Amino acid sequence: MQPIKTSGYTIYFNDDCYGYLQEVLTYEKYSGIFILADTNTSQYCLPNFLAQVPTELPIEIIEIEAGEINKSIETCIEVWHALTDLGADRKSLIINVGGGVVTDLGGFAASTFKRGMDFINAPTSLLAMVDASVGGKTGVDLGVLKNQIGVINNPVAVLIDTQFLETLPQPEMRSGLAEMLKHGLIADKKYWDNFSDLTGLTTDDLGVLIHWSVEIKNSIVEQDPNEKGLRKVLNFGHTMGHAIESHFLNSATPLLHGEAIAAGMVLESYFSMIKGFIGREEYETIKSVLLSIFGTNDFTSEDIESIMALLVHDKKNEAGKVQFVLLESIGNAVINQEVENALIINGFEDYQK
């Protein structure tokens, strides 16, 4: 697969990842290399990755606990302390090997330690490959509130080795599909149509779809790197989805990011239909595809009340008003749409039918 060039860095795939690493470690003369991983990727991904890192420089491993609950400023402080204790400086390099928690938190830690050091993202989950590691967003959660603290800062490069997906549990693979489906819904109907039937999907097919998904996201980000307008379309499903994810984060049954976003996309597609942007047939198609992959979550009236209260913290809000991304059609989205509380409640009722 051909590398994808952005205005600030390049995204490499599979074998090209390690050719690039050899080049950058030879010519950049970094003072030290630090690899951030979580307890899962440290066990399942890091050995293979380290075997292909061509350098005689000592490599220090910093390990954090896995899970969204650890995407916090407290964990970031621990990383900063580890970097300090291990002698990192501004000429050091951090390589973030992991899913979205690792790439988001690691990118933020690197962007702020000593006012900024280079970092490379090596995403190991499907979700991180097609979303979290691309676009320069870094940051941590504030309690249960998603991605409230952070900066937009590009990595030196992104290294997508799809072999890491062989280590991924099935629920995590399914979680990543949500962002890929979103890319089709907001920007490319032909891409969406490729997901109407996943029964014959091969590993090679998935590799092609990952590359295609990254191209879609990169094209949007390149036109609006600081999310002043067009880039907001990438938040389709996320206004409701992040509130749902936040609500269940500390519960006995937390949802994976993709599971929450899938529910959010069904709800926001319903809002799109009721507001007259899409027809009922398009809505029913979207709902059918998403629920066939992710199933239906049960929401009590107390859950819905809590989720609606969390909407006020969404990052897209302006002047205290919740701003939604809705669909004009499959493949086209519209930003900055308000949705009445009564419509949100009706959306949950329709979702659970």
Describe the structure.
The chain has 353 residues and is an alpha/beta fold. The protein has two domains: 4-167, Rossmann fold (3-Layer(aba) Sandwich); 171-199 and 229-351, Dehydroquinate synthase-like - alpha domain (Dehydroquinate synthase-like, alpha domain, Up-down Bundle). It is built from 14 helices and eleven strands. The protein has helices spanning 15-27, 39-44, 46-50, 73-85, 100-112, 126-132, 170-187, 189-193, 203-223, 238-248, 257-274, 280-294, 301-310, 341-351; strands at 4-5, 10-13, 33-38, 59-64, 93-98, 118-123, 137-142, 145-152, 157-160, 324-329, 332-337. The strands form three sheets. A seven-stranded mixed β-sheet has the order 1-2-9-6-5-3-4, sandwiched between helices. It has a two-stranded antiparallel sheet with strand order 7-8. Helix 4 (73-85) crosses helix 5 and helix 6 (126-132) runs parallel beside helix 7. Its EC number is 4.2.3.4. Residues 176-317 form the 3-dehydroquinate synthase C-terminal domain. Catalyzes the conversion of 3-deoxy-D-arabino-heptulosonate 7-phosphate (DAHP) to dehydroquinate (DHQ). Keywords: Cobalt, Lyase, Metal-binding, NAD, Nucleotide-binding, Zinc.
Provide the fold topology.
Layout: E1 4-5, E2 10-13, H1 15-27, E3 33-38, H2 39-44, H3 46-50, E4 59-64, H4 73-85, E5 93-98, H5 100-112, E6 118-123, H6 126-132, E7 137-142, E8 145-152, E9 157-160, H7 170-187, H8 189-193, H9 203-223, H10 238-248, H11 257-274, H12 280-294, H13 301-310, E10 324-329, E11 332-337, H14 341-351
Helix pairs in contact: 4-5, 5-6, 6-7, 6-9, 7-9, 7-11, 10-11, 10-13, 11-12, 11-14
